Every structure is written in structure tokens, then in C-alpha cells.
Amino acid sequence: MSKERTIFSKFIKAERKKRGYTQKVFAMRSGLGLRFVRELEQGKETLRMDKVKQALSYFGYDFSIKRIGEDDE
Hints:
By secondary structure, the protein is mainly α. It contains four helices and no strands. The radius of gyration is 13 Å and the shape is globular.
């Protein structure tokens, strides 16, 4: 598993646990499938980006794309 997937998987899992949610509760409340949540937290290589964004959005986060080496503005 790549470093990025590991960090992302741990982040989602930590956010879920911080709220005291099981994977099933998170899936139901966020509108995601339980299988997707499990695969997300296990660091599956291929995931639908719209669902990843939905998971992040549920916790109040977003992601963006930037060119490597560019400073944040």
C-alpha cells in the first residue's frame, strides 16, 4: 500500500472513530455503501473519486489538485 493511501485511509478511519461511528453507521449517515467504506479504510487502490469526495465532505473536508512544487496560495 502506498504511503498516500495509508495516510488517507487512516485519516478517514480516525475521523469516523472520533465521532464514535461504526463503519455501518458512517455508511448510512453519509449515504455511502458499507462495502465502499470498508474498502476506503483498507486503502483500496481504485475508488470512485465522487464517493471519496462525499466521504470527506461528510466530515467537513475537501481535496484539491495542485501542481507538484507549487506553494499554497
